[in-house]
Amino acid sequence: MGRVRRGKTGKARRRAVAAPCRAVMVMARGTSRKIAMSRPLALIPTAALALIALSGTAMARPMTTEDVARLERVGRIAVAPDGSRIAYTRARLPDVTRGEANARTQDQLELAWGPEQEREYLPADMDVAAVRFSPDGRTIGFIWAAKGEKDAVWGIPVDGGGHRKLAEVEGAAVIDYAWAPDGETIYLLAAPARDTRRDSEDKAGFNATVYEEEWGYNRLFAAKAGKSADKAPRQIPVSGQVTALQVTPDGRQAVVLTAPTPSVDDSYTRQRAALIDLATGQAVRTIETPGKIADPELSPDGKRLALLAAVDEHDPSPTTLHIVDLATGAQRALNAGASEAAIDAEWLPDGRLAAVIHIGAQSRLRIYAADGETFTEVDPGSLILTGLDAAGGMVAARANSPTHPDELFVLADGTFRRWTSHNPWLGEIDFGAQRTVTFTARDGQAIEGVLIEPASGVPSGGAPTILDVHGGPESHESNGWVTGYGAPGQVAAGRGYAVFLPNYRGSTAYGTAFSKQHQGDYAGKEFDDLVDAKRALVTLGVADTDRVGMTGGSYGGFATAWASTAQSEEFAAGVMFVGISDLISKFGTTDIPQEMRLVHELKYPWEEWQHLLERSPIYHVDKARTPLLILHGGSDPRVSPTQSMELYRNIKVRQPDTPVRLVFYPGEGHGNRMAAARYDYNLRMIEWFDTYLKPGKRTAPKPPQRPTLPKEALAK
Q1: What beta strand segments (E) does 360-458 contain?
Q2: Which ranges of the chain have pLDDT less than 50?
Q3: What DSSP assignment string belongs to 235-261?
Q4: What is the distance between the alpha carbons of residues 208 and 201, in angstroms, rounded to a whole number?
Q5: What are phi and psi of 88, to 5 degrees?
Q6: Global confidence as pTM
Q7: Of 185, 381, 652, 712, which one's alpha carbon is 20 to 30 angstroms from that of 239?
Q8: Does a structural domain hold residue 625?
Q9: Dihedral through CA 557, CA 561, CA 566, CA 567, nearest 10?
Q10: How far apart are the first and last CA of the chain?
């Protein structure tokens, strides 16, 4: 259902031996053998990183909501063509707890040339995107909007000097761009042109909009990359809605992602990769893929395309790595049927292909030989790789671990070495022990998840426990950093909770067959897995059976609504975010109806009205005894806010004694973006669980309507 926190995105994974119903098998993360690389990369030597030692017990402290508000992470990474340095963005929200102005995530450009050797490269108030080196490596390009202007392509010299505008499209924001190989032209993907006739109409009050009929299409331009921005770039006529582009090495063609319309549903179900002529905009070849696609990457010689793609139209997620021959259109799947998910891929200069592969809750770097038949792997240990870039003999990765968010790492001598440390204060935190756990569901299916124990240890009789259920369900949890504004993680562990993040059936990273197991069975075995997870944790001695709650967003919000109604006897508290309560009305109010049919239920609502009704939480409100906090973005196009209103109203009328609260975040969509809304969410979530789950008292009075905020947060 759309990505929330760790939503929409895929081993020869370790499985529990067949056992009686709900038998438990604990699997702490093992150390896999590191496979020697047959052709070592020519990597720049790096010094060993002096890791920050955790503070002693006397100085250790639990993680707090205020800590979550100031976390920083590495965002986009780009390796210079000669491999001498890495440009990256440091992503952070304004810290509203310390008086910074409320805003969305800001991405600051930084440049690194070795372990702990990096510096800011632009003023701190510049929020940039799409960081890339020019073909000669002398300039770092980025998208930025100067005050009063639209997003344009800017650049800053690597060797010193100020930033300057390189290319723009008058009156429209630049969405993406690509350098021509000679560096003389920049191809711009710009937002739709403004219909100027609407300006006067809007001012006069005639601001009605025609639903889904007033879409504008992105436009493609070619601009000269001179000392000053090209004021009159040449428009290249292209058909459909183009969302990304890469220029071939000869500069004559480009690979684009295109969909028939700008609808989100089309971007999921009908998007295709195409090779176009940059002179005419005409399609030279369309890559005929049957379902979802992502991450197109051109080979260095321009003859092949690496593409993450679904194996059929019913495949929930594009997690199979394909190689496409651009001359013929022939495709070859490199890991079809494997119990894993390809996450990202990058070509190496010698024609090999490096890919991030998630195998269950762990990750690998896999390097395919030029023939695509053989490969070597690097085990990153406790790291979870989330992104790659490679150039000039250097392979750089974005990666996190159970004790830090994404940082910058570089592959050297078969080992990933850490280059950045953006949250040194994490060394003060007393983290709860984190590991993977596998249990056997009632029908014998092995289910894996990530367990965080209370930082103070598991008490006798078990701890209050939160099931944090991911969205999608076509995504998965990895045994890395799992704490965020909507993810209780280590904040809850510091307050005495155990937290379990289950990869219930429908999740990726266990192969396409596993991710399809939820299809045609809304709230069936997929949510039975969550009850079985609870019972397994009780058997393990981690959870107190009377103090288990649930939270999650999107599909995880659906799970929480189901747990709080149909399965209310199992769960003592719930915090539901942008979740589903009525499967029938959901279909008519979402922006992804075809995706719902193709990869979730396989039927339209009118083919099974009664079945969908019975699988809707609102149908089961007569059982609702679970205190439920419902949170929703007021402008959510994916799961309408009316889904939360329906559940709230039905519980209030049918079960007036059950504690329920509905909170809207004005202007937020399918996930909160503003710093204040995220901080408020985390405060409310923790307070709700402290009120009902920790004491195990379902009838306690509701907490105050508004959480207590730091004085600094209000001193603007």
Answers
A1: 362-368, 375-378, 384-391, 394-401, 404-412, 415-418, 434-440, 446-452
A2: 2-58
A3: EE---SEEEEEEE-TTSSEEEEEEESS
A4: 9
A5: -155, 165
A6: 0.91
A7: 185
A8: yes
A9: 70
A10: 37
